[in-house]
Amino acid sequence: AQMQGGEAVFIPGAHHTGSATQVVMERHLWDAQGNTKHDLDRQKSLLMKCERRGGRNNDIRPAVASGGFT
Predict the structure, then answer these.
(1) What gap in Å lies between CA 70 and CA 61, rounded to an integer?
(2) Whole-number pLDDT of residue 2
(3) Which residues contact 22 (CB under 8 A, 6 or more apart)?
(4) Nearest to 44, CA basis, from 58, 25, 57
(5) With contact defined as beta carbons under 8 Å apart, do 26 and 37 qualify?
(6) Is 41 in a helix, a strand, or coil?
(7) Angle between helices 14-33 and 42-53 (to 10 degrees)
(8) Which pTM value belongs to this model?
(9) Is the dihedral of CA 10, 14, 18, 23 positive or negative?
(10) Dihedral angle at the C-alpha atoms of 26, 27, 32, 36, nearest 10 degrees?
(11) What confidence tens digit (pLDDT) does each residue in 8-46 have?
């Protein structure tokens, strides 16, 4: 969006949070089922991520606000 002249919201740490989440998800998948992310189709992968994510989707926002990045 920003590269096409639109506005973008900068959320510090959000990208790193996504990377860390990916590692945790892959580790859980291996420990629970002995599978890698390549063993799942897209639909199963998204379903697993949604189930594991639960209510933790907005954890980064309070952390960012407490750091003064509002």
Answers:
(1) 9
(2) 62
(3) none
(4) 25
(5) yes
(6) coil
(7) 110
(8) 0.50
(9) positive
(10) 40
(11) 777 666 666 677 778 888 898 899 999 998 998 888 888
CA angle 25, 31, 37 (to 5 degrees): 45
Q: Are 63 and 13 in contact (CB under 8 A)?
A: yes
H or E element at residue 69? none
Cα distance between residue 31 and residue 27, in whole Å: 6
The DSSP secondary-structure symbol of 65 reads: H
Do 45 and 53 form a contact (C-beta atoms < 8 A)?
A: no
- The predicted structure's pLDDT at residue 39: 92
> Which ranges of the chain would DSSP assign to H, the alpha helix?
14-33, 42-53, 60-66
Q: How confident is the model at residue 61 (pLDDT cuts 50, 70, 90)?
A: low
